[in-house]
Amino acid sequence: MSCDPPSSSRATRATRASPRGEAEAPPGYRALVVVALSPLAFALVFACWTLFAVLGVELRRDLALGSAAFAVLLSTPMLAGALASLPMARLARRHGGRRVMLGCLLLICPFLWWIGHAQHYAEFLLAGLGLGLGAGSLAAGLVYVAELGPARHAGLALGLYAAGMVGAGLGYLLLPLVSQAYGWRTAPLFYLLPVLLVAGLLWLFAEDHDPLTPVSDPTGDDEARPFHSARRARTARLARLARLARRLAGWSPWRLALPYAFFFGAFLALALWLPGHLATRFELSLQGAALRAIPFTLAVGAGQVLGGWLADRRDFRSLRWWLCAFVLVCLFLLSYPPFELRIEGTHGPLSWHYAAPLWGFLGLLVPMGVAMGVGQGSLMRLIHRDHGGDMALVGGLALTLGGLFAALLPPVFVLGSEWLGLSTAGFMFLYAALVVCMLVMLADHALHRPRAQ
């Protein structure tokens, strides 16, 4: 029996989504446009976030950066994105996801240009923070797809949207080629045209939901209204903040957001860290390492679609445990560094050297990526099912937690590697974080089990 009691917000979402009745429901082409354009915006934002990782060799050489300084540079887009996710999701709920997505895409354009011309480390940090504001497009797109996507296949639509994470693989494939042909400062400018193109398509073909209609003054006193409108606006804002604080104080929004945040944050951090890790561990060029990291991003994207599609057909709450257990085993095996075992035998010492080959490393990484993608897709469908009427809050909270976790990981990976002297310290930390996440899930299950029975 499930330990997560279903929320009553589904009826509220249905009422809000069609306030004028079934006769005026959004046409089918609108859902098709939403499902088609939103993943493109998602992919471009993710590709922009991988700029620093793919251009790491050039940046570290030209700026004389150490490992810790470079890790902070990798974390800046994710930190800004985490802080922007929840507010942008709330704005999308009130003013329309298309408007917020369009604004965020246009907002990152000057920062892309700035990266191509920046000279100092502080400039790159500020430009990275600006790129992180593109996460508002991710959060707004999540609300947009949840509200205007196909209701019968909401999980598939959300999975297709989140499959835009393969934009990280797009950066791995194209940016090294552009960098070699025209120089690394041209690579950020390479994204300007696609970002502007997708923004133009959203402006031309996508539509927003009907805005929330303000409550009219029952007295009809137009002369007194200007004197009290500012006070009413402040009172309404304070009331919304109070309701938001009450919702966040409860455990319900966090129940599904926490495991989603682990999968989302771990993928995002690994997508940035893997090229450098593969290049160092297996003595590859950065371009060769980036190409070998593409299967991991594709596996996560395919898993997103599969997880959303499966969650449309049944309530896969128990699937979280199996996915977490499988990912835990993969992380445990990936955490093993090369080592040598020496045993004093009766006829002399016996030694055995272990070093995971590249094919074995990728053989663990790809199925783990599929499991992480299935976890994200199914969990987001469950969030939509339980909290569809407040997707901006719970979905935005999941993206915020995931972004904060992802921003923490690159410095932790570097510090762990330098302090412990182990190249696999990042996988060890992810293993420990997943154990903590599963313990929280277990405590939640034990707390709600008697009530469910």
Automatic annotation (TrEMBL):
Region called Disordered, residue ranges: 1-24
Organism this protein belongs to: Halomonas urmiana
Keyword Membrane: yes
Gene Ontology annotations of biological process type: nitrate assimilation
Compartmental location: Membrane
Membrane-spanning residues: 31-57, 63-88, 100-118, 124-146, 158-177, 189-206, 256-274, 294-312, 319-339, 359-379, 391-413, 419-443
Record-stated family: Belongs to the major facilitator superfamily. Nitrate/nitrite porter (TC 2.A.1.8) family.
Domain Major facilitator superfamily (MFS) profile: 31-451
Protein name, entry field: NarK/NasA family nitrate transporter
Pfam family, one: MFS_1
Any Gene Ontology CC annotation: membrane
PANTHER family: HIGH-AFFINITY NITRATE TRANSPORTER 2.3 (PTHR23515)
Entry keywords, A to Z: Membrane, Nitrate assimilation, Transmembrane, Transmembrane helix
Biased composition (Low complexity): 1-20
Membrane topology: Multi-pass membrane protein
GO molecular function: nitrate transmembrane transporter activity
